[in-house]
Structure prediction request, 292 residues.
Amino acid sequence: MALNPNFIGRTYPSSEPYLVGREKIREFASATCDFNPAYHDIAAAQGLGYRDLVAPPTFAFTVVFASSRLVVMDPDLGLDYTKVVHGEESFVYSRPVVAGDELVVTNTIENIRAAAGNDMITVKSSVSTTSGELVVVTTMVIVARGTDSQ
Amino acid sequence: MTTNLKYADVEVGTKLPALSVPIQRLNLIKYAGASGDFNIIHWNERFATSVGLPNVIAHGMFTMASAIRVVTDWAGDPGSVIEYGVRFTRPVPVPDDGVGALLEISGEVTELLDAHRVRVTLTVSSAGQTVLGKAQAVVQLA
Prediction:
């Protein structure tokens, strides 16, 4: 495989804090035509027991995506970003993301393997508040196409 | 977490209300801005076709975000979603032809779990072909 297998288990430093804003939640939900009141109406979110607007389930990926560039752009890893596609994505929540959360992400390369001529890399990302409360763990599989032939 | 859906009221085979989501280029532009994913294949047809794609394709995460609406619309409280995962098995081309693409999303309870949780399996297709694999969510009910 083209990727360096010694990177399995490598953990990258925590990202800079990401402050989750109300308008970003509304923008994200509107972009997916999702008008669930919990994403738009503070009173509705509070009626469900939340401090502020709730973010849609996949919103956390936008926070992880920004931080994962540290991994995918790591020149020592050897990933050709122009050949990368998203293979799998999953979320395991401790609680939903809420407006006002200040989130930091820690990325770990969980696995690198070759399959059908492609390299597949699994990145696990722990998303926590700056005060250390775990919010969600995401797992992303990215596929680098056709690296065996190089 | 305050969904009104009761664990006692669902069983394996319970179907969630289905959803159709039309996608036009404007949706992808908005999603690019909202998510920060400006990959050119999601908005530039010239580039997308030059790398062998049939057309501009939807962000996989746009499709993933759309699919879970079947669960969050059903449960009401988005915090009911405890786990959610998918495989991206086929791209969704979004032509600039005034029609775009259509996602057809359905969901069904496929397993009863402990602690009033259920597993929901989602079926997501476009143009008659499944576009997400192993699309499943674990949902906390009352």
